[in-house]
Design a protein that fits this description.
Chain A: Keywords: Amino-acid transport, ATP-binding, Nucleotide-binding, Transport. The complex is a heterodimer of chains A (about 240) and B (about 750). With about 240 residues, chain A is an alpha/beta fold. Chain A is built from ten helices and ten strands. In chain A, strand 1 and strand 2 form a beta hairpin. Chain A is globular, with a radius of gyration of 17 Å. The chains are: A alpha/beta (about 240), B mainly alpha (about 750).
Chain lengths: ~240, ~750
């Protein structure tokens, strides 16, 4: 049984069907990438998994239990931590306060986890008392991921972690995601940067206008002509 | 600007036209300043004209010698603006800012404040009192000299002399003598002013609450301190936080100094007992009660014990502060509290005796007391506080963080003066109101106190949770109507077992307001910013209109009346509030203290952090596991119930109200108070409400009634220009509006714009 099973979900914004029956699954310990162009439904899928939106039809199961329609603040107690699109750190809280907010579901932040996050992101240690709003984009992304780790996730949802960042920083961030995954955290990542994401992911799904059009292992997808044409900007020979 | 074409034509011409442009700009600026002065002269002038003489007011304000003062103001503003870059470095020198503050305080005392309550002398202002006192033979000659029997401008001249001396000491950096002389003279002059006023008071023998001389003394002492600072700093360009440095040197010392000044004035200058036509200092009070059956203890207190207790406390507190001795600190605090209780007992004793024996129209215990006893009480509280601070003070080295970088360290540094300030605020909240006039006591109880309570409540909603609520006054109305219902003053009567006294109505009001807050919140909290504001505004109006129109239930536009005053009957405690305004003040103080203590805990609790997170970013807050709906509802409900408590208090204090008490304007005022004070800052919201409710009442005496709102508007504008984050800004907002862009660390410094309020 997979850790996360998404079964034929349909999500609507008013009359518009954003997802028209999306199904996929994520095994424990995997990194799975959701690819697609703007408006394909990647972020909607992730928001639905994290409980910020509810599907009109279909089922989502986490660890075998249905979680569709369960609100986000409850889901986090089962270990689903979401790093929302656009980083969304708390600008007028210090880095430390931001990290502590990540552990809001516990009575008290776990010191060990905090130390571990500091190891993963030494930059955050340097800026620990600074307001998060004064950090650079890359540092904010690191903080957003660190904050999610403070909630001790089993499944980490990353929404476009590379958005608006310099290539070097993107590299660093993907390295760290790999490291986190190596520690046993399952990762579901939404990306437009297909090459980076597929190099990292065990498996990937390609979404197009609310439907899964392609799926396979990261390597296969990277080699797939259609993916190369659509997302890597290569001409088909 | 056509500098580009000028440059191509040739350097010489360009330079000439630049100079010409600069001259024109200067001339424009000068004209602007003079025009400003002219408008000011018109504004602060006679307002009334007569039917057949339309130019009367104009001539009175402009064609009079006083126009010279305004012209001087204009020139001064012009000079200040023109030479601002050269003035700025001067401003940061040691002593400049205290000097300016002190001089301004004295000027305020000489122009705006009352020097006597006796209405015979031109409103009791200094300008009216001075010539009269200077010519009155019966006044002590030393005092008359102060008012200027020799030279008609003496007090102003004194001020000028000390300011000039201290300013010269600042200018010529190596002369510490000038600083000492100027500072010393200033302190002497301050005491002289105080002495002169007490001489006038004992001459007039009229019960007196005027603050003029006291404020002048404070101003002169501030000038004196600045002089001494200058003399000791030897020209070091650093005046950053004078009190902070004194505090770092010896915590408690600023408090000891304040306690000494207030206590000395209270013991030696102020009146202790002032029934009709009488103003007796402590010595005279002692002789007056000789042989009237005053208890031996009280008689001893008035004769000598008061001095002993005060000086013992002063010396102990001073020694404890100087030596930083914990045990001595505890002893000083203990002695201070004991002396305070003894003083209160004696005051109650002799004022009660006076009333019993119909002494010169004395009216009752706690009545007819002058300011002296209360000042001594205040001084003892401050000294006890100083002792306590010393006793609790731990020597912690604050890590020296780079300015503006570390928010935690900044918070620690900012709050260091906090406890000392808190002691002063507590002392004045307890013992200043009894010395105020009836008018100010009423203002304190019916305006300032209530709005402070409301602002504390709204601060939870607007400041902490970031939800703009424009219908806040509705909950206040609900609290008031709940009280009216439960005390049986509405057409609909409660069941007999529910007929309660007003204080017992408080829990019901809290519960009803909680429910009302949730009812309003549940459907509307999906809205944000402006939309929420409009819905809450509508809610406020609905409550008022319903109250106005459902006559069978709420008595319609006639409102509720004859609501009984609060009373307490629990075991031995048996208090009934009556006509004495002061009693309500202390009741209100209890409410405010309880609410502040609770909310202070709340701010740093899990809930408080959840509010902060929601205000910062709602999506992220949700992602960290905060139940945003529930947390926002709680903010609404908690704010609402505070408002409800204020409503209960209001209803039973004022006794009658109509729906017109709950108009939209009041909701907006409360929002303005919170914003003015500093959104999200508990002390800020309180200070904002206090200042903005005090100001209109203060201006009542100073400016024509129709201009009042304009002056208030001007103050708010100035505030928003110079302190955009509010009077006492919350840490986070201060960072947002002042500090974030001063960072040296990161590539980008952009902060997402906040979503509305």
């Amino acid at each position: 049984m997979a850790l996360l099973e998404v079964d034929d979900i349909e999500v609507r914004y008013g009359a518009i069907r954003a997802l028209k029956g999306v199904s996929f699954d994520v095994e424990e310990g995997e990194v799975v990438a959701l690819l697609g162009a703007n408006g394909a439904g990647k972020t909607t899928t992730q928001k639905t998994v994290s409980g910020m939106m509810r599907p009109a039809l279909g089922e989502i199961r986490f660890d075998g239990e249905r979680i569709d329609g369960v609100p986000a603040h409850t889901l986090i107690h089962r270990g689903i931590c979401h790093v929302p699109e656009g980083r969304r750190v708390f600008p007028r809280m210090s880095v430390k306060e931001n990290l502590e907010m990540g552990a809001f579901r516990f009575k008290r932040p776990d010191k060990q986890v905090l130390d571990h996050v500091m190891e993963l992101f030494p930059r955050l240690q340097e800026r620990i008392t600074q307001f998060a709003g004064t950090l650079s984009g890359g540092e904010q992304q690191m903080l957003a991921i660190g904050r999610a780790l403070m909630g001790k996730p089993r499944l980490l949802l990353l929404d476009e972690p590379s958005m608006g960042l310099a290539p070097l920083i993107v590299q660093q961030i993907f390295e760290i995601v790999r490291e986190i995954n190596g520690e046993g955290v399952t990762v579901l990542i939404v990306e437009q940067n297909a090459a980076q994401a597929l190099a990292l992911a065990n498996r990937g799904y390609v979404l197009e206008t609310g439907e899964v059009v392609l799926s396979g292992s990261g390597k296969d997808l990277l080699a797939d002509d259609r993916v190369r044409a659509a997302y890597l900007g290569e001409e088909i020979a | 600007m056509s500098t580009y074409t000028d440059v191509t034509k040739g350097g010489g011409q360009s330079r000439r036209s630049d100079a010409a442009e600069a001259r024109i700009a200067l001339a424009k600026r000068f004209a602007g300043c003079m025009f400003l002065a002219f408008v000011l002269a018109l504004m602060i002038g006679t307002q009334e004209g007569t039917q057949d003489d339309f130019g009367y007011a104009f001539r009175k304000s402009v064609f009079a010698p006083r126009i010279g003062i305004f012209a001087l103001i204009g020139v001064a503003v012009f000079l200040a603006v023109t030479f601002w870059p050269r003035i700025v470095p001067y401003l940061s020198r040691a002593g400049v800012r205290p000097l300016a503050a002190g001089a301004l305080t004295v000027v305020v005392s000489f122009t705006l404040l009352n020097w006597t309550d006796s209405t015979d002398l031109n409103n009791g202002k200094f300008g009216g009192l001075r010539p009269a006192a200077a010519q009155t033979g019966g006044i002590d000659p030393v005092a008359r000299l102060f008012f200027g029997s020799a030279f008609s401008l003496t007090p102003w001249l004194l001020l000028l002399i000390v300011v000039a001396l201290v300013a010269a000491a600042i200018r010529f950096e190596d002369s510490s003598t000038l600083g000492y002389v100027g500072g010393g003279l200033a302190i002497v002059f301050g005491i002289w002013a105080q002495y002169a006023q007490s001489a006038v008071r004992s001459f007039l023998d009229y019960p007196d609450h005027s603050t003029g001389a006291g404020v002048a003394l404070l101003g002169f002492v501030t000038i004196g301190v600045s002089g001494i600072v200058v003399a000791r700093s030897h020209g070091k360009a650093d005046s950053g936080g004078f009190f902070q440095r004194v505090y770092d040197w010896r915590p408690g010392m600023p408090l000891v100094a304040l306690g000494a000044v207030v206590g000395l004035v209270g013991l030696f200058s102020a009146a202790w007992f002032s029934p009709t036509d009488r103003n007796a200092g402590i010595g005279l009070t002692s002789t007056m009660f000789h042989g009237t059956g005053l208890s031996g203890f009280s008689a001893a207190y008035l004769a000598w014990l008061a001095y002993v207790l005060f000086f013992a406390t002063l010396i102990l507190a001073g020694a404890a502060s100087y030596l930083r001795h914990h045990l001595l600190g505890w002893v000083a605090a203990g002695l201070g509290v004991v002396s305070l209780l003894v003083t209160l007992y004696v005051m109650h004793d002799f004022s009660g005796l006076a009333a019993q024996s119909k002494f010169d129209g004395a009216t009752g215990a706690w009545d007819n007391l002058g300011t002296g006893g209360w000042m001594l009480c205040g001084a003892l509280t401050v000294l006890a506080g100083a002792g306590y601070l010393v006793a609790r003070h731990e020597q912690v080295e604050v890590p020296d963080a780079a300015p503006g970088v570390s928010s935690d360290a900044a918070l620690a540094a900012g709050s260091k003066l906090g406890p000392a300030l808190l002691v002063v605020i507590i002392a004045s909240a307890l013992f200043f109101p009894p010395t105020a006039t009836q008018f100010w006591q009423t203002v304190l109880v019916t305006e300032i106190g209530i709005y402070v309570l409301l602002a504390i409540g709204l601060n939870v909603v607007v400041g902490w949770a970031g939800l703009l609520d424009l219908g806040f006054i509705a909950f206040y109305a609900i609290g008031s109507y709940t009280t009216a219902y439960l005390t049986g003053r509405l057409p609909v009567k409660p069941p007999s077992f529910l007929e309660l006294t007003p204080l017992a109505a408080i829990p019901f009001a809290i519960v009803i307001c909680l429910v009302a807050g949730v009812l309003l919140g549940a459907p509307t909290l999906r809205l944000r910013g402006d939309y929420l504001a409009i819905v809450t505004l509508g809610f406020g109006e609905i409550i008022r209109v319903v109250a106005n129109n459902s006559t069978p239930v709420t008595n319609g536009s006639r409102g509720a009346f004859n609501i009984p005053p609060p009373e307490i009957h629990i075991g031995p405690l048996d208090i009934k509030w009556g006509d004495n305004v002061l009693g309500y003040w202390y009741l209100l103080l209890v409410f405010v203290v309880i609410v502040v203590l609770l909310f202070n805990r709340l701010e740093h609790s899990r809930l408080g952090r959840a509010w902060a997170a929601i205000r910062e970013d709602e999506v992220a807050a949700q992602a960290t596991g905060i139940n945003t709906v529930r947390v926002k509802l709680l903010a609404f409900a908690i704010g609402a119930s505070t408002s409800g408590v204020a409503g209960v208090y209001f209803a039973s204090q004022i006794g009658s109200f109509t729906p017109e008490n709950f108009i939209l304007n009041n909701s907006i005022l409360v929002v303005a108070y919170v914003v003015f004070g500093g959104m999200g800052s508990l002390p800020g919201a309180m200070a904002g409400a206090a200042v903005l409710t005090w100001l209109p009442e203060f201006l009542r005496d100073q400016v024509p009634a129709e201009d009042r709102q304009m002056w208030i508007g001007a103050v708010i504008l100035l505030m928003m220009i110079f302190r955009p984050a509010g009077l006492i800004p919350a840490r986070r907002r201060r960072a947002e509006l002042g500090g974030l862009d001063k960072k040296d660390s990161s590539e980008t410094t952009a902060v997402p714009a906040g979503e509305g309020m």
